[in-house]
User: Which sequence fits this backbone?
């Protein structure tokens, strides 16, 4: 298929581009480079070479999804896309609380412009990067896709929840209007993506001090940060620290390739959790990292982080039943590959 990948130089996007090309798809990358670097394209090529694909064609447009003219020119220059995999967006939870307008404008308005230009260009299939955050404080775990969504806990979460609704409404309206070619919308709710490509050539490169657990751990391991703060050890979990469903980014990337099956089958609107179904605590991750890599991670217990909850993890059964996808890699793989990336790129992409 001919696939447009927005946000394709970012963490999840870059890994997904690799898996799409390996699976034989043609990929066009669009990114405004607000949270990534153009040199990622060269890294993707090197990963593909290691995978036996030489001189892969990687068309790239440095365009903002809010830029109508830039989008229209890109659609004009490219053959009609079969699907857009839409990663582009701002994703820092804390920042979204301080800059809500920027988050609504970039993520919500940006997606409105994107889908408008897509439909003008004859592409009405989208795979959207959503998040487990739309479940809010979930009623129970493992969480199936049918679980109630709860009020967003921050503007970032609100943008994901709103965009799920907006994209669903586009499909519903097409059906009501008797459109012969209604929108296909695949909503992927990611749990906690970590890890990196096995080669250590591409990975997660957060700007500033990391907010998320694994990049914090790897930066402690590489000596950029002194010690990990563990946010709370009095949660209702097996060791008192927060439990999450960590998923290897390469498994997650493959989930997008699998999701194209739903698009091909003209699925209408489908929602899938992408997780492993297994929950690990903060200390489980720390100890797994230490064991996998033979490096000690100094840590201290800190107060709870506002907005955190005890525990949540996915029920990933639907993705397996409908798409034939399931996560293959385990926590040891995630810890090994996160470290391999950080060790080879102590300062990230430079
Ligand atoms: P990332 O920041 O590494 O990648 C996002 C990319 O989008 C970046 O390259 C950035 O430059 C680009 N971008 C941002 N705004 C843009 C705009 N207006 N126009 C064009 N490009 C733009 O983030 P990621 O971790 O790869 O996440 C990808 C998607 O998955 C995001 O939508 C994010 O919200 C979602 N998601 C991520 C996680 C996670 O833990 N990483 C969890 C759930 C959902
Ligand atoms: C966070 C966001 C979530 C977002 C996801 C991916 C919050 C409340 N949630 O999820 O909306 O979709 O990132 O970007 O911000 N931890 C520490 N020390 C650290 C960092 C984290 O102990 O330095 C703990 C946390 O308290 C939590 C676990 O590690 O128990 C995972 O945290 P994190 O990686 O930030 O992910 P989430 O909070 O699950």
Assistant:
């Amino acid at each position: 298929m001919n696939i447009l990948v927005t946000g394709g130089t970012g963490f999840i996007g870059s890994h997904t581009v690799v898996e799409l090309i390996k699976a034989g798809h043609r990929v066009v990358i669009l990114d405004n480079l607000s949270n990534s670097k153009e040199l990622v394209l060269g890294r993707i090529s090197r990963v593909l070479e290691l995978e036996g694909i030489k001189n892969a064609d990687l068309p790239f447009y440095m365009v903002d999804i809010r830029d109508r003219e830039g989008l229209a020119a890109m659609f004009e220059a490219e053959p009609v896309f079969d699907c857009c995999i839409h990663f582009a967006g701002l994703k820092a939870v804390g920042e979204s609380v301080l800059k809500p307008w920027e988050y609504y404008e970039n993520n919500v308005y940006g997606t409105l412009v994107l889908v408008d230009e897509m439909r003008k260009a004859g592409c009405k299939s989208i795979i959207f990067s959503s998040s487990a955050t739309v479940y809010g404080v979930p009623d129970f775990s493992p969480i199936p896709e049918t679980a109630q969504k709860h009020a967003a806990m921050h503007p970032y979460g609100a943008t994901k929840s709103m965009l799920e609704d907006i994209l669903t409404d586009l499909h519903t309206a097409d059906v009501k209007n008797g459109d012969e070619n209604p929108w296909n919308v695949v909503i992927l709710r990611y749990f906690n993506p970590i890890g990196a490509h096995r080669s250590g050539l591409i990975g997660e490169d957060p700007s500033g001090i990391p907010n998320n657990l694994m990049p914090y751990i790897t930066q402690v391991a590489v000596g950029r940060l002194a010690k990990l703060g563990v946010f709370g050890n009095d949660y209702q979990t097996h060791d008192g620290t927060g439990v999450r469903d960590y998923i290897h980014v390469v498994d997650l990337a493959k989930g997008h390739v699998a999701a194209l099956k739903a698009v091909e089958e003209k699925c209408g609107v489908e929602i899938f959790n992408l997780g492993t179904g297994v929950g690990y605590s903060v200390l489980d991750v720390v100890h797994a990292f230490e064991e996998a890599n033979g490096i000690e991670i100094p840590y201290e217990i800190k107060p709870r982080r506002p907005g955190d909850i005890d525990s949540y993890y996915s029920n990933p059964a639907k993705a397996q039943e409908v798409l034939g996808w399931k996560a293959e890699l385990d926590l040891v793989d995630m810890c090994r590959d996160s470290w391999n990336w950080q060790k080879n790129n102590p300062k990230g992409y430079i």
Remarks:
- The first strand starts at residue 2 and ends at 6.
- Residues 155-176 form the longest helix (22 residues).
- Residues 91, 93, 131, 133, 157, 192, 211-213, 216, 228-231, 242, 244, 282, 305, 307-308 surround uridine-diphosphate-N-acetylglucosamine (ligand 2) (CB under 6 Å).
- The CA atoms of residues 12 and 249 lie 6 Å apart.
